[in-house]
Design a protein that fits this description.
35-stranded parallel beta sheet; mainly beta
């Protein structure tokens, strides 16, 4: 009831512009609402903020937040306007409400974003303190909702002298919450961050719903990063980013687990949905469903050189810095136009999350199910499921899959010999490391217990590559395949160093030699 009354008050105060004291007081009595300066509702205009896009409002906004906090918490209200600001420190029990027509716009001045004190929780991305527009550490019960916008003014966010590295050069995030609990982000638009758009690090009970993210203004423009968090839902949202889209990470010791992602549309020049690259704490109990992955609507080319405009991967699952990935369920996904729909990688880059940390041991990847996936107009990198010698990805099931690549290759366009596909144990985990693999459908290496069923595949243009290549694979079952055409290979599957396999001939496959085994 309190939340309902507060929402009614927000609308009333907006209409009255907080000035009609008789009308406002009457409504306060009738509805049981609080005035703007009581413990429930605080209008930033009453603390001197000016929404003219020119006046710096950092201290005014902070004053409203501090007053609200001192009275036990409540709503800090932003009426329509563009509020230029530097770093805003959120506090316990604070709800920021951005009304329609409201923009919080990041300053372009370094001095307006002081480096924050290094928190107790250590992350590979933190070399001594963070920079962010909206920031909070160790908070409980915080939220940002409404119909307004957070704009990071990313084109104007320049690296600072003396700070090196993509995540360590001082460009501010739009949102950064560290070791916080009970977070709600709903309804708002987020744009143009200096680096990652929103970063939730070692947080719990994170609820992100019905937001719109458009992030094409600077390097490393991820849409959202869930990093070492527990109990997270991301739903009913649209993400369009220059760098990775929905990104699950574990850049410290905390795991990312119990995460549900559903009903989202994601566009990325890099990896649309990704678990990795950093993986120290691992990933567990991740459910992704009812999502559409499609090319970005941005008219500008990617900021990173060599990145395909239609995206590198649709779904990437990666363990390369230690940690365990297990119990991953992905269902009802439509992918349009990425170079590589599925990329599953267990490597051993072994990067430490801090200088003091021990070098991580080889990671583990197991128990992954992907079902009801359609990928069309995809590039020719090929889908891949790969580990490194001496380690195996285990228990992968793929069901009800349709994949149609572009094809149109000649021999000079791809790696012809499977033995020439380097292990790349220490390389950055991304299919660009290999380019076009010797398979048109799946390249599988160092995998145990793989089941593929009900798969329809084909190439839009002639493709001379073998559809399925499996190296060092054990307990493999591939059945109920339907081939729609396009391949010019006489061999459907090539297996080397295999054991315990069952591979059916695809329906409509006319090649003379459908299986090549040694």
């Amino acid at each position: 009831m309190t939340n309902l009354l507060n929402n009614i008050c927000i609308r009333v105060f907006k209409v009255c512009n907080w000035k009609s004291s008789f009308g406002v007081c009457f409504l306060i009595i009738v509805f049981g609402c609080s005035s703007p300066k009581t413990k429930h509702l605080y209008n930033v205009l009453d603390y001197g903020a000016i929404g003219d896009s020119q006046t710096l409002n950092t201290s005014n906004i902070q004053a409203a937040i501090d007053a609200c906090s001192n009275n036990g918490g409540g709503t800090v209200y932003f009426p329509s306007g563009t509020y230029l600001s530097g770093t805003i420190q959120l506090k316990d029990n604070i709800h920021l409400y951005l009304d329609a027509g409201t923009t919080i716009l990041a300053s372009k001045e370094h001095k307006d974003f002081p480096r924050q004190k290094q928190p107790r929780y250590r992350s590979q991305k933190d070399s001594g303190g963070w920079f962010s527009l909206i920031y909070g550490v160790g908070l409980t019960n915080i939220s940002i909702t409404g119909q307004g916008t957070i704009d990071g003014n990313g084109v104007e966010q320049k690296p600072r002298l003396g700070l090196l590295g993509n995540d360590r050069d001082g460009r501010p995030r739009n949102l950064l919450f560290i070791s916080c609990k009970k977070i709600k982000i709903e309804g708002i638009t987020m744009r143009n961050s200096g680096i990652w758009n929103q970063h939730y690090l070692n947080c719990e009970d994170v609820f992100v719903n019905n937001i719109n993210v458009y992030n094409h203004s600077n390097r490393n423009n991820d849409a959202i990063d869930i990093d070492g968090c527990r109990r997270v839902t991301i739903s009913n949202s649209i993400f369009d980013s220059d760098d990775d889209g929905i990104t699950l990470k574990s850049t410290g010791t905390a795991p990312t687990e119990d995460v549900a992602i559903t009903n989202c549309v994601i566009s990325s020049y890099c990896n649309a949905i990704k678990a990795g690259t950093e993986s120290t704490g691992g990933f567990k109990n991740i459910a992704i469903s009812n999502c559409i992955i499609k090319p970005s609507r941005s008219k500008t080319p990617p900021i990173f050189d060599g990145v395909p405009k239609r995206g590198i991967t649709g779904i990437s699952l990666e363990i390369v810095d230690g940690g365990t990935m297990e119990s991953i369920a992905i269902n009802n996904i439509t992918i349009e136009g990425t170079q590589c729909p599925l990329y599953i990688r267990l490597g051993n880059r072994g990067r430490k999350h801090s200088n003091e940390a021990p070098e991580p041991q080889m990671g583990v990847m197991k128990n992954i199910t992907i079902s009801n996936l359609i990928a069309y107009e995809t590039g020719n990198f090929s889908n891949s499921i790969t580990s490194i010698p001496g380690s195996y990805i285990e228990n992968v099931s793929l069901h009800n899959i349709q994949i149609f690549n572009k094809g149109g290759l000649v021999e000079k366009d791809f790696i012809i010999d499977y033995a020439q596909v380097k292990e790349e144990e220490k390389s950055y985990p991304q299919p660009t490391v290999w380019g076009n693999l010797p398979s048109s459908l799946f390249f599988v290496r160092h995998v145990k217990n793989l089941v593929v069923s009900n798969l329809t595949f084909g190439s839009e243009n002639p493709d001379p590559r073998i559809p399925f290549v499996g190296i060092d694979v054990h307990n493999v079952s591939i059945g109920n395949f339907f081939y729609t055409g396009g391949s010019t290979s006489e061999t459907f599957a090539l297996l080397r160093k295999q054991s315990a396999y069952s591979i059916d001939r695809p329906m409509n496959w006319e090649g003379k030699y459908w299986l090549d085994i040694k």
